Amino acid sequence: MPQATFDRLLLEGDARALGEACGNALTVGLDARLPLVRGRLLALNPEPEDLATVLGDAAALLQCRAPEAALAVLDRVGPAAGEDRRRWLLLQWQAARDARDHRRAALALQRLSGRSVEALDGLKLPVGDGPLPVASALDLQVGHLAADGRPAAAAGLLQTPASDPLATAERLGEATRLLAGAGQGPKALGLLPRALDQAAGAAAWGLAGQLLTRQRELELEGGQPAAAVATNQRRERLARRVEDGIALRAALRSARADGTREPALAQALLDRQEPLEQRHGDGLDLLLQLSEGATDDRRQARLTLAARLAAVLDHRERWSDLLAEQRLLASQAGDAWLLDRVDREALRVAAGRPLRELEALDQRLLELDQDPRPGTPPWILETPEGRERQRRRLEVDGEGLRQARRRLGFDPFPGAHTLPALLEDEERLRRARPAGDDVLLTPAVFGTLPGRLPLAEAAARQQQLEAALLSILPEAEPRQQARERFALLVQRQWRRLDLETSLTAAVQRQRLPADAVERQQELLDLERQLDPRSPWLQELAAEGSSAEELASLGRWQERREALRLEDRREEARQLRRRRRQLTLEQQDPLPTAQQRLAIEITRRWRELLARPGEATAAALQPLAVAREQESLELELVRLRLAGLLREAGQQRDTMQEELRLDRQLRSPLRPGGHAGPPAEAPP
Predict the structure, then answer these.
(1) Half-sphere exposure of 36 toward its Cβ, with a 13 Å CA cutoff?
(2) How far is Cα 235 from Cα 256, in angstroms, rounded to an integer?
(3) What SS3 class is residue 238?
(4) What are the pLDDT digits (tens) for 124-150?
(5) In what order do the strands lie in the sheet with 438-440?
(6) Of the spans 386-400, 478-492, 554-568, which averages the highest pLDDT?
(7) Which of 39, 458, 498, 535 is the most buried (most CB within 10 A)?
(8) What is the mean pLDDT of residues 321-350?
(9) Which CA distances in Å does 600 have to 111, 356, 588, 622, 623?
(10) Could you report the per-residue pLDDT of 525-568, keeping only the tens digit for each?
(11) Residues 6+ apart with CB under 8 A from 274
(12) Which run of H or E residues covers position 630?
């Protein structure tokens, strides 16, 4: 609708035309027109002369998605009993429904039916498009009453028999749900036998199983364990009769709960355990297997792998504990490289958890304070600006050093090369991997070529570099020895990439290969060798240097190390400021809710480790739920269930049958799918 036409319609149009204008605006997305039309409709007939005008204005406002305004227009009249009043009440119900005014919607339905339950059940009202465009007013009234906070009244309506046993059973089942949710368990229990009879009469065995499950829950809540046992036995018989494996497994799990001293608690924990196991069970099993009870010589690799798994599971408390154990081993071994790596990760992981962050800060500061202190540090390093100037100067001097070490290679395209860069780039091209029309190269340490090149360009570059190397190192034996050293560098680069890729994928899937620890150990060794400060890489950096160049390179490396140490001293100064800030926050009488929760989780976790049991696990579980740490919650649920079920002395046959059903019915998203256990699982 053109703007000029719309403006004229606002001045001259009636309610019908204005309603159609709203529909047009909604269709084409011109929502800015809706408020104009709504305002015009409200002012169109402020003192209506007849009911038809009011109903027309209200219907148009509903088209404009203004149900509150439609209710205001309908309030302008109050028709007497008859067909006019029926139309007025129906429109009032529609407006109240759209406005989510459930009290008023329920009142309109009550008046429409003349307070007769039978009339309410027989009244069919439009509920929108779809396969069932109409619904019983009784079912609609139940929804309004429940949403208005009147579950008992809604449950009372639901006890009205429907047209068939299945619908009656469904109504009674919903009534029990509403009553149970309102804390009226005894009343709900009283309705369940009728609901079960109706479900059985309709052969609705799935619904019957659900009703029995609800009955058992209410019996447990009501302190009737013997009745709950009998109900669960009915569930089991029904599941076996209809060959429902899922229901049978649930009944067997409930039987385990019934054998404990606290069946309601055991059932709640079992119900919570199942979805958590589906999402995190395999990963938590692996985490505990990796992090506990290992004494082999690859302990550090096991802990590193476990920390990676804890990160994927978001099990932050175990993650921090694993890093602390890694740090202890690295400190005992005097491994400065690993100590630096672990301390930096521990600081990152501890962010947002005050107790953990204080500990990580102290450990990092302890490490930084072990750095050697120069006798008279250059004054220019004492400020951030001075350090930045030194860094830029170091880069310029490093480039000058490389220029001084260049050799002229007389290939078909003569050029100057530093020997380390030439040797590495030639080997990177030699060991490049195809990727469609391109080839992939390892990340460069000394080289200048990018990590991806077209096939033709890569072949041409390789010929050029081989010719250049032949002219720079014409003697075969020195050339071959140099190539072998840099071939080892590129091999290690590829191996590191392959190991990192495969281990990352395995950790993300939460399914590790049998040699995962060995792979992680190899990866750690490679990362140590390929660290820019490693003696091996520094030796490669000196390839082909004269005595004078070696001396210049040594002085440049000393300056770089001095700048690195000064950066670490600056880091220590910043960490001390952060530590003072955290200490003050700890003394704050009113910490934030998130700070309180994080502190309490860490404290409760340590209590659990010191005294594992029902009390400490029960105290920590709600905190894990509040922080949405599902892996931690699953560990606590397992611990609590282990105590309850161990005391119950469960029958082995029941547990074996439940395990068999669990394997057969495992989610298709888990390995093995509905076909049963994975191939490597024991029969």
Answers:
(1) 15
(2) 14
(3) helix
(4) 888 865 555 788 899 899 999 999 999
(5) 433-435, 438-440, 452-454
(6) 478-492
(7) 458
(8) 93
(9) 55, 11, 15, 11, 8
(10) 999 999 999 999 999 988 888 888 888 888 888 888 888 888 88
(11) none
(12) helix 630-648
Q: Regarding beta strands 124-126 and 134-136, do their DSSP bridges make them parallel or antiparallel, or are they unpaired? A: antiparallel
Dihedral over Cα of 402, 407, 408, 412: its sign = negative
Which residue type is seen at 303? L
Instruction: Return the structure tokens found at 125.
Output: 């009202």
User: CB-based burial of residue 82 (10 Å sphere; 0-12 exposed, 13-18 middle, 19+ buried)?
Assistant: exposed
Contact 185, 179 (CB under 8 A): yes
Residues 6+ apart with CB under 8 A from 291: 302, 303, 306, 310, 318, 322
Res. 338: pLDDT tops 90: yes
Q: What is the pLDDT of residue 660?
A: 66
Return d(Cα 361, Cα 346) in angstroms, integer: 9
Please tell me whether the overall predicted TM-score, pTM, comes out greater than 0.85 for this model: no
Give just the sign of the alpha carbon dihedral 29, 31, 36, 37: positive
Length reported for the chain: 683
CB 425 within 8 A of CB 444: yes
Q: Based on the number of CB atoms within 10 Å of its own CB, is 26 exposed (0-12), middle (13-18) or buried (19 or more)?
A: middle
Extract the tokens encoding 145. 């009453």
The Cα 319–Cα 473 span in angstroms is: 51
